[in-house]
Each structure stands twice: as C-alpha cells, then as structure tokens.
Specification:
Largest sheet: 14 strands, mixed
Shape: flat
Oligomer: single chain
Helix content: under 10%
Number of helices: 0
Strand content: over 45%
Number of strands: 53
Distance between the termini: 169 Å
Length: 579
C-alpha cells in the first residue's frame, strides 16, 4: 500500500525470501507463507528561493523512521545562505543539515538571501567617514545603509544622490537597501570668501586680478603690492585678526574665512599738527603747551575749577564733547583745539534743630542750578515738625507746613534749618456708664486748647474726672464739661460715672407729700427726707413702698422721715383716711 514497503516472506520456520516474488515446491505438509511490510515516511527538500542555491545529499524519497538524513546547501553566485528550516519547526545555520527520519513526513528547506551591490563615493570636496558608514560591497536586500560625509576645508556638504535620481540633504543619511542595488555619491560645494584690501594714509596698493571686494575660494593665490607716497615708507600689512606681515609684495593664500588686508605707511619726514588749549570762565588748565606737535605724539591736558565752579567737559574746535574727565589724553589725527568748560555751583546747607533729624535728604554740598534737591524733616519721639527756617529758599518752597519737599537748586546759595516743637501725650477715656467727646487722643503742644465733655448713659450720672499727670490750671474734676490749656507734661483723663435709680412719691386722697428730692434719678446713698401732710379732716395712715425699701424706713411714720437712696428704684405713696 502507499506509505509502506515490502520487507520479506516468512513461513513457520522464518524468512524464506526477500524477493517480492517467491516461488517454491509444495512440501508434503502444510505451508503457511506471510508477506511482511514496513511503514515508510516521505522526505523532501527545497531551496528558498530556488535560484538561491542547490541541495546535495539524501535524495527526496520514503524512508524508515530512524534513517540518517544529511543534506548540504550549495550557495549560488549573488546569494547568501541563511539557514535550514524543517517542518517540525527546527532550524540550523550549519550549511549541512543532519537528522534521523522521524516517524512522520519531513520537509527541509534551505533558505538563501539575494545579495545586491552597494557602492558609495565622494565627489570633489570631501570624503566619507569609514568608521560611521556602511562599506561598499554586496549587501543583503533590506539591510540598513548608513553613510556620513565629511567636507574638506573650503567646501560644504550639499547632498547625497543615487543612480535613480533621488537625493537627500541628511548627513548622516540612513536608508534601506533596495532590491536592485544602490549607488550613493556625496556631493560638495566649493565656498568663496570675501577678500578686501585697502591702503592706509600715505600710499596705495595693487592687488592685480584679486581686486578689493573679490570672492575667492580657499587656497587661491593672492599677490598684493604696497606703494608708499612721497614722504612716506611702507611699514607692514595687517589683517582683521591682528596679524602683521612685512613682506612686500605679500603673497598669501586665501584662508577658509574672510580676509581683509591693510597696507600701513609711516611718514619718512615727520609732519606736524597745530594744537591749542583754552579755558572758559570758571577754571584753570595745564598740560601740553599750545603750538606745533609732531604727528603721532600724545597730548595731555588737565583742568581745575575755581571756587564756586565744577569742571564740565572738554570740547574740540567743532564744539563736540571729547571727554568729561578733567584729565584728557589723546593722540591727535590732525590739527586740534581743546576748550575746558566749567559750570557754576551753589552751596546747599541743611541743619536740624532740637527734636528731629533730616533723613533721606540731599547731602550738604555744591550743586549746579537746576539740580533736584530733596529735604525730609523727621521728628523724634514726642516732637512734631513745626517749620523750616530758610535763607535763599527757592520760589514755591513752603517753610511752614511741608516736612518733605523737592525743589530745583536756584542760582544762589540755599540754607535750610528744620525746626521741631515738643508735644505731650493727651488721652481721654470713659469708665462704665458713659462716654467722652471733645479733643481726641494724640500728641499736643503745651498751651494747646483742650475741650472735653463727659456724657452719662441712661441710668447713670457723671461722678468726676480721674487725672493722671499734671492737673491743668483751673481744671475742676467735678465738672463734666471743661476747657483748659494743655500742660507741659503728658495728661490722661478718665470720666467716672455712677449708677442712678428712679425715686418718686405719690399721694392718696386726703393729703400732700413734701420731699427734699423731687421725682428724679438719684445715686445710691443720696439723703432724702419725706413728710406726709394730711388735709383738714384727714389723718395719715401709712406709706406704701414699691421697689426697694430703704434701710430703716418706717412705713407708719409720716412726719420728717430721713433715709438714704438704696441700690434700686423706690416709689413711696402716702395714704390718708378721713376723720
């Protein structure tokens, strides 16, 4: 059957033949013949892709389980062997695959990868960094390619181009290897740099074809020649980087940057300039004498102000300020006239009387008219600012009220003195049962007019004032309203109040009531006398008390009964009967 192979014929005695066809003479006994078969399994190989190589070794066919299998992959030109894979999921990177035939079919595949050509190159002006770039050669399809270009001095990297018209300005540049191969070229651009050449005073220059303002590439040859004018000699060439060169002609090569050359000359016969100095009103000058001076020589001048002036500046013959320092040194580049200028100043003086300071004020000194001057009088504890004493005060200066002021210095001296006045603490307060109005708490000058009024609340009466400090002249501690002059010391007043209670009398029919205190609000302890006086035909019977009965009060006594007001309201009613 399919999947099996014939093994042999056997009878009762054992194997009689391994041929598929067995012929024998019938013996004189029974004969039992058995055809024996063995299960076999399919083995096959393949190449992926088929053009990637060939396979030699064990041929495709059916094999018994356990049969030794060995096949070898032979790589075709332009390919690379990767590995063997089998239908059991196994793999090996050995070029020869060996295995024992399993008890099932087995397929083995040799895997290959096609190699494609990679070429890299650099155009004029640069190189490719070997350490950071993929080398030229055969590269597997799909591999990562990295290239890094390095521009030579005087060049700049432009782009990468391939053979298919593609380009990239990335550097480094990364790409995937295409199926058809890849050729990359690094392209560069040669740079040009500005070249300038000039002649200083005293000569001319000849730069040939490399004229001033040319653009030259790195390494270009330059020849410049300096020619001095009559009366001058060539000194050297200087560039913009501080370099000096004495060759003439001078033949440098163009660097990879801008180059600026200047030919310098010096007089062979020393010329002279005229120099003069002068001082305007307000000062003196010293230093280099007026007259002819050699070209290249140094001029030094010094200015000193007279009393009442300060140095302002030096100006040249055109009126241009050349220095604000009183000492000035210069090497003239032509005829030179210097004038020392001075500005008048005016004395500012401030002082302070007893009882304060002048903080945050402009210091005493000399100032130019128009300078902003600030004064600030700050009183000490227990003092207040009173006024400024001023000599030469500017227009608008307030001597009486403003402790802090700013003004512009006038064209005259100014003397200011801050004056202060002693003050004393005044305070008033009210005890329970009332309030105080009038002059408020604060610091007051001696003899200042002070008015206070103690006003009791409902149910209270003013009692007196408690005085802490010096009692003002004429002050009556028992008067609720007072006006007095502030003494020369601190003063504290407290208004005291006492509780009052309602007292009243009423009378029944048949008489009248006499009392020393009419119906009123009275302080506890007030002495009160009452008398019940019957009319003709009536007789006093008793008192009816409503509220708090005063101590010792006899309700049956009608004539001249005296008692003190209790701590509570009292109403007394006199009662009478007719005779």
């Amino acid at each position: 059957d399919p999947g099996y192979r014939f093994v042999n014929w056997t009878d009762d005695t054992g194997v009689v033949s391994t041929n598929v066809t067995y012929a024998s003479t019938m013996p004189a006994e029974n004969l039992n013949l058995t055809a024996n078969f063995q299960h076999v399994y399919a083995f096959s190989t393949s190449a992926n892709p088929s053009a990637g190589g060939t396979i030699t070794g064990t041929a495709n066919g059916n094999f018994d389980a356990g049969t030794s299998i060995s096949v070898t992959a032979n790589v075709a030109s332009g390919y690379r062997f990767d590995n063997w894979t089998d239908s059991d999921g196994g793999s090996t990177t050995n070029v020869t695959y060996t295995n024992s035939m399993p008890a099932h079919d087995l397929t083995v595949t040799a895997n290959f990868t096609q190699l494609v050509s990679f070429v890299r190159s650099a155009a004029t002006g640069g190189t490719i960094d070997d350490a950071l770039s993929t080398p030229s050669g055969d590269v597997p399809d799909g591999d990562l390619i990295t290239v890094f270009a390095i521009a030579n001095t005087g060049y700049e990297f432009v782009n990468w181009t391939d053979g298919a018209g593609g380009s990239s300005t990335d550097n480094p540049y990364n790409t995937t290897m295409p199926t058809g191969g890849l050729s990359l070229t690094a392209n560069f651009n040669q740079l040009s740099y500005p070249f300038n050449v000039a002649a200083g005073t005293g000569g001319s220059i000849d730069a040939g074809s490399t004229a001033d303002g040319s653009s030259l590439v790195y390494g270009a040859s330059i020849t410049v020649t300096a020619t001095p004018n009559t009366g001058y000699a060539f000194v050297n060439w200087t560039d913009g980087n501080g370099g000096t060169f004495t060759a003439n002609p001078y033949t440098p090569t163009m660097p990879a940057e801008a180059l600026s050359l200047t030919a310098n000359f010096t007089p062979s016969v020393a010329p002279v300039y005229t120099f003069s100095k002068s001082a305007n009103t307000g000062g003196y000058i010293a230093g280099t004498a007026s007259g002819n001076i050699a070209v290249g020589s140094t001029v030094s001048v010094q200015a000193a102000p007279r009393s009442g002036y300060i140095f302002k500046n030096w100006t040249n013959g055109s009126g241009t300020v050349v220095s604000t320092n009183d000492s000035y040194t210069v090497v003239p580049s032509g005829n030179l006239a210097l004038t020392a200028n001075f500005t008048p100043v005016y004395e500012f003086t401030k002082s302070v009387g007893l009882g304060g300071v002048t903080n945050a004020s402009t210091p005493n000194g000399q100032y130019v008219a128009g300078t902003s001057i600030t004064v600030a009088a700050v009183p000490s504890t227990n003092y207040i600012f009173s006024r400024w004493t001023a000599t030469g005060a500017p227009a608008g200066f307030n001597v009486n009220n403003a402790a802090s002021q700013t003004f512009n210095m006038p064209t005259s001296a100014v003397t200011l003195k801050a004056n202060f006045t002693r003050v004393y603490a005044f305070s008033n307060s009210a005890g329970a049962g009332g309030s105080v109005s009038g002059t408020g708490n604060g610091n007051l000058q001696a003899n200042a007019s002070v008015s206070v009024t103690a006003t009791p609340s409902s149910g209270y009466a003013f009692k007196n004032w408690t005085v802490v400090g010096t009692t003002p002249a004429g002050f009556d501690v028992n008067a609720a309203t007072q006006t007095f002059a502030m003494p020369e010391s601190a003063l504290t007043l407290k208004a005291n109040f006492v509780r009052t209670y309602a007292f009243s009398t009423t009378v029944g029919t048949g008489g009248t009531v006499y009392t020393t205190s009419a119906n009123a609000s009275l302080v506890a302890g007030t002495v009160i006398t009452v008398a019940a006086i019957p009319n003709a035909g009536y007789v006093f019977t008793n008192w009816t008390v409503t509220g708090t009965t005063p101590a010792g009060f006899d309700v049956n006594k009608g004539i001249n009964q005296t008692f003190t007001m209790p701590d509570g309201g009292v109403t007394l009613k006199a009662n009478f009967n007719s005779l």
